[in-house]
Amino acid sequence: MKKADVAKAILADQLFSMPQHSCAEAFAPTNIALGKYWGKRNQELNLPVTSSLSISLDNKGATAQLKINEKHRDDIILNNRLIDPTSSFAKRLIEFLNLFRENEKPNFDITIQSNIPIAAGLASSACGFASIIKALNNLYGWNLDSQELSILARLGSGSASRSIWSGFVEWHAGTRDDGMDSYGEPISTLWPDLIIGLLIFSEQDKGLSSRVAMQRTIETSLLYNSWPSKVAHDLPLLKQAIATQDFELLGKTAESNALTMHATMLSAWPPINYCLPETLLTMQKIWRLREEGLPIYFTQDAGPNLKLLFLKNSLADVRSHFSLI
Ligand code: PMV
Q1: Any idea what DSSP says for residue 103?
Q2: What is the pLDDT of residues 151-199, one digit of tens each?
Q3: Nearest to residue 62, comparing CAs of 161, 148, 134?
Q4: Looking at the chain, which terminus has fewer C-beta neighbours within 10 angstroms, N or C?
């Protein structure tokens, strides 16, 4: 099964229909996984080995605008910069758009404005593809529901399937070969006192994409064999922590889940280590502050930056130790 077959299955007669508007835009929040997605059971459809669970950062994400143009080419402007059409980012985006248009027409001016560092392990591809699919839904007037949008966003980037909603989201791994049961589902519990602080050590491109890193880990790391049981252990604990607002349980489960994911990468060959010296020094600082009584935890994705987890009543304390964005 190809991506195009999934687009056809979801859009049916609406696939390749005429756009209803000449311009449309949409916002999608970025999401931070507390229980990570690491490893694909199907690389073409971005179907994951395990389920995962995230929290969306409501005010941080991407706004995508699609405007039909008559230039016979797509222009992509990312954060006010025209993107080289031969770059891997442009190719990936155009390949995604081509799923939904016949003979690569109409052409678009695509503007993506993101208020988070792109490709620095801050799940920016997640909000990028989620905002694009939402903008396409508006442009074409498809009226898809959120579950269908989640499945289509997944074809662009796995974690984009969770960026359709705000709040907590579980992405069900599903078991079907066509991935029709692999989509995000929002968890209705709100936790207004929970804060995610971003610690940026580098905004540089991470070098090794999560796609390549995941695949290498699956193929070469023996430790990866224990990853599905780690997720099976952690996801119920994360859900319990959210339901009972148990911050310590949430923090320690999320931190341990991220460290286990990175352990599978360290044991891959060639080894993968996304940490910078600042990343490791900051982990040690977090562990020291926690021992001294500050309730603070971290998570880390496929990049050197850390995301801090803490409660609102620790904000002043946390700010005195870290410069958050
Ligand atoms: O969706 P991708 O291919 O960018 O992969 C994201 C992988 C992690 O960020 C490391 C984990 C996650 O669940 O977001």
Answers
A1: T
A2: 999 999 999 999 999 999 999 999 999 999 999 999 999 999 999 999 9
A3: 134
A4: C
My answer on whether 174 and 52 are in the same domain is yes
> What is the extent of the structural domain holding 64?
3-187
**Letter string b/e over residues 212-242, b meaning 16 or more CB atoms within 10 A of that residue's CB:** ebbebbbeebeebeebeebbeebbebbbebb
Count other Cβ atoms within 10 Å, centred on residue 43. 11
Residues near 71 by Cβ (< 8 Å), separated by ≥ 6? 107, 109
Q: Are residues 55 and 171 in the same domain?
A: yes
Candidate of 47, 150, 159 to mutate for ligand 1, largest count of ligand atoms within 8 Å of Cβ: 159
Given 187, 221, 248, the domain boundary residue is: 187
Interval 279-313: pLDDT, tens: 999 999 999 999 999 999 999 999 999 999 999 99
- The CATH number of whichever domain residue 144 belongs to comes to 3.30.230.10
* 71-84: pLDDT as tens digits: 999 999 988 889 99
Mean pLDDT of 25-44: 97
| Domains identified in the chain, total number | 2
pTM over 0.90: yes
For ligand 1, whether the C-beta of 52 sits within 6 Å is yes
Burial of 133 (0-12, 13-18, 19+ CB in 10 A): buried
170 within ligand 1 shell (Cβ under 6 A): no
- 162 and 253 together in one domain: no
Specify the residue for token string 């790391």. Answer: 221
With beta carbons less than 8 A apart as the criterion, state whether 208 and 272 touch.
yes
**Cβ of 302 below 6 Å from ligand 1:** yes
Distance CA 296, CA 79 (A): 32
